[in-house]
Write a structure and sequence with these properties.
The protein is built from 16 helices and 16 strands. The chain folds into 3 domains: about 10-305, no CATH class; about 340-425, no CATH class; about 435-490, Arc Repressor Mutant, subunit A (Orthogonal Bundle), CATH 1.10.10.410. The strands form 4 sheets. Strands 1, 2, 6, 7, 10, 11, 12, 13 and 14 form a 9-stranded mixed sheet that branches. α8 (about 340-350) crosses α10 (about 385-395), α13 (about 435-445) packs across α15 (about 460-470) and α13 (about 435-445) packs across α16 (about 480-490). The longest helix is centred in the middle third of the chain and has 20 residues, at about 235-255. By secondary structure, it is α+β, with helices and mostly antiparallel strands.
């Protein structure tokens, strides 16, 4: 296995280069209403059916902050061990675009709601040595713009304002990442935390979480180079592809004697390349100033205490709890990667199953079945209670591990509980030594040559005898009894 702690380098024509990466993640806040209006936020609604007079920027309309959106952003900051600023302020970011009726975006450049925090990642789930802390610069709350629809008419574009005014958290990382793998691990971990907290559904395909990818290159040990920003990347895989492509593009420019331009770029997944969109603007280009229609946000002790008390057990704490139960670090990491999986597994544990046995079964058997069926764990046809019953039947010797696989397949097909299937189909395991001895005698008699080889020292043949006995008894023999009786018979 490659050394996960070794620095990631790209070799160019003139030597090695280091990549410096920062991500600005836009996460749509989970809320039934928009940031400054009561308009709905449901995904997939007919165009322009979720637009209030405030969203459409009609004259005289005044924004009113949505308390739930602020609460969700504060809870997110707390989950990231970030500084919560008791005093924050909204600014106007002025620019014109067809899907921005106000002519400005309400954001928080200078006085954000949340300050510095940390995300702890493992770039390799099986290697604790790949742990790294990635800094959060800030989280600010802002309103989203609308959407231009270019494919509805051959000569015109339409504007859909449903998304206009939806609350976003912009989560800005520090430039602490040094490889595509680190950026991928950071984005997956951040998404998991948001989904645990419930502040964002993390659905990148629907655009409720997307990343602006900042990339620069430098010689190892040199100051930071000029960065580019690739906008609105909507999958972890694409984020990693952008980093790889953009880093190599910049290296090629520099090695040919050119200069990297600070600019905004777009990623084309079809061609797997980035292309220039516009030169990168600075803050003065947007002419920021405090929004005169909105008072500063001032958070009191009671509000902060309520936010903190509402936080669930987070992924790292849950993973450590699972490890203390005896399961492997890898299994614990896999089981806590998605909040639905962790919740399902916690319910399974509540039924009194052995944690280590349960973890092995979920990772090996359940995940395999879900992949085969093409469904998520939330859609699993086997409930945690039924799964617990199956595991207990194995643990108390009622059925063997091999029979359990057969029973599980029948559970997936029928939805029936394990006990009913075992009794209905006569699958109960037998420890009847008389029946087992009879089969062993028959098998040893039919394989006298192999018995001689075993007794002469070919010990690996023992597995052959076990397999033949289990096959003869249709998998219903207790494997422990089979092993004991075979050793006795073979001397």
């Amino acid at each position: 296995m490659a050394d996960a702690t070794a620095p990631y380098r790209i070799r160019g024509e003139t030597g090695e280069w280091e990549v410096v990466i920062g991500l600005e993640v836009h996460a749509q806040v989970t809320s039934n209403a928009k940031l400054f209006s009561r308009a709905a936020t449901a995904f997939g609604a007919e165009p322009n059916t979720q637009v209030s007079l405030v969203d459409a920027a009609m004259p005289g309309m005044l924004p009113v902050p949505n308390r739930e959106c602020i609460r969700q952003a504060v809870r997110t900051g707390m989950a990231l061990a970030a500084t919560i600023n008791r005093w924050s302020r909204f600014d106007r970011k002025n620019y014109f675009y067809a899907d921005l009726p106000q002519g400005y975006q309400i954001s928080q450049l200078y006085h954000p709601l949340v300050g510095e925090g940390t995300v702890h990642v493992l770039t390799d789930e099986k290697d604790e040595g790949s742990a790294k802390a990635i800094g959060i610069e800030r989280i600010h709350v802002e309103q989203d713009a609308g959407k231009l629809m270019h494919d509805q008419h051959p000569t015109m574009s339409y504007v859909d304002l449903n998304r206009c005014g939806v609350a976003l958290m912009e989560i800005v990382s520090k430039p602490d990442m040094r490889s595509p793998a680190e950026a991928g691990a950071y984005l997956r971990k951040l998404r998991a935390i948001l989904r645990y907290v419930g502040s964002c559904d993390g659905n990148m395909e629907e655009g409720s979480m997307r990343a602006d990818v900042n990339v620069s290159v430098r010689r190892p040990g040199d100051p930071f180079g000029t960065r580019t920003e690739t906008k609105n990347v909507n999958s972890v895989r694409f984020v990693q592809a952008v980093i790889e492509h953009e880093a190599r593009r910049q290296i090629e420019v520099l090695e040919e004697g050119g200069a990297v331009l600070q600019e905004t770029r777009l990623y084309d997944p079809g061609r797997q390349e980035t292309r220039s969109l516009r030169s990168k603007e600075d803050a003065h280009d947007y002419r920021y100033f405090p929004d005169p229609d909105l008072l500063p946000l001032e958070l009191d002790d009671a509000f902060l205490a309520d936010c903190r008390a509402s936080l669930p057990e987070l992924p790292d704490a849950k993973r450590k709890r699972f490890e203390l139960m005896g399961m492997s670090a890898y299994n614990a990491s896999v089981l806590t990667a998605e909040v639905e999986t962790a919740s399902w597994f916690d319910v399974l544990l509540s039924h009194g199953v052995d944690p280590k046995q349960a973890a092995n079964w979920v990772v090996a058997e359940l995940f395999g079945a879900l992949n085969r069926l093409g469904v998520s764990i939330a859609e699993c046809p086997v409930s945690p209670a039924h799964a617990a019953e199956l595991l207990k039947l194995v643990a108390d010797g009622t059925i063997s591990g091999s029979i359990a696989k057969t029973v599980f397949e029948k559970m997936l097909e029928s939805g029936d509980p394990a006990g009913a299937i075992v009794e209905g189909e006569g699958l109960r395991q037998t420890s009847d030594t008389g029946a087992i001895d009879a089969e062993i005698e028959r098998i040893l008699g039919a394989n006298a040559d192999k018995v001689e080889q075993y007794r002469a020292g070919k010990q690996q043949l023992f597995g052959f005898f076990v397999g033949q006995t289990m096959k003869a008894m249709a998998g219903k023999a207790n494997p422990q009894v089979v092993n004991e009786r075979l050793r006795a018979k073979l001397g």
